[in-house]
Structure prediction request, 232 residues.
Amino acid sequence: MDADPTGGAAMLAGYLRGQTVPPDALLELWTAQQQGRLRTALPSLTLPLPDSQVALLPGTRSHAQARGLTGVWEPLLAALKALEGTGQDVIVDVGRLGLAGSATPLLHGADLVLVVCRADLVSLSALRSWLATLHTELEDVGGASSLGVVLIGPGRPYSAGEVGRVLAQVCGGRSPVLASLDWDPRAAAAFSAGAQVRRLSSSRLVRSLRALDAAAARAIAGTTQDLAQVGT
Prediction:
C-alpha cells in the first residue's frame, strides 16, 4: 500500500513506468468508509503487479488529497489487519516521517515498523532524532518492541554494529538495526524506475531483501509471542 502523503504515485511512475492509470483508491476508500462498505470495496481497488503474487493499493495523486484522508486510517487499519485471516501480508509505505497528512494510525498499529536509512552521518543524524520520537510514541501504545531500522549500504561509512550501538541509546538499550540492504544502485533501479536488469533475482540487493524478509518474519513472530505471554 502506498500511503506516502507526498502523492505522485511513485511506484506507478517508477516500477510500472507510468503505463498504468491507477484508480483514486484512497479517495474511493474514504467514500466507501462514509457509506459503511470499506472492507468490501478494498479488494476491487488493488492493482495486480505483473509476474508476481502482489497487489498494489495505489496512493494519492497529489499531496493535497492526503490531508483529507484523516478519518479513513483507523478503519482501514482494521480492514488491513483482517487480511491476516486470509493469509495475506500487508506492507505499507508511509513515506518520509513528519509530513502533513501522514497515515500515523497505520504506523502505530503495524506489527513491525521499519525505518529505512543510509549509513552516512547526515542520514543517521536525522534518524536518531526521529527514532527517539517513534520509540516514545510506540511505547505509549505498547509497541516499542516493533520498532526497527533497515540500514542501506552498511560500511558507507558506518557498519551495522556501529549504528546499532549509537541508536540503542534512544531505543531502551537495544540495537534497533533489524537488517541491512546491500548498496546496489543498478538493481535498485529495477524497482525505482522500472529498469531492465539482467539476473535481478541473483543480485546482491535481492539477496539482502530476502534476508530482510526472513528477519522481519522472525521479529513479528517474536513480538506476537511476547504479546501472547502478556495476555496470559
In short: Strands lie at 47-48, 55-56, 113-118, 147-152, 177-181. The chain has ten helices and five strands.
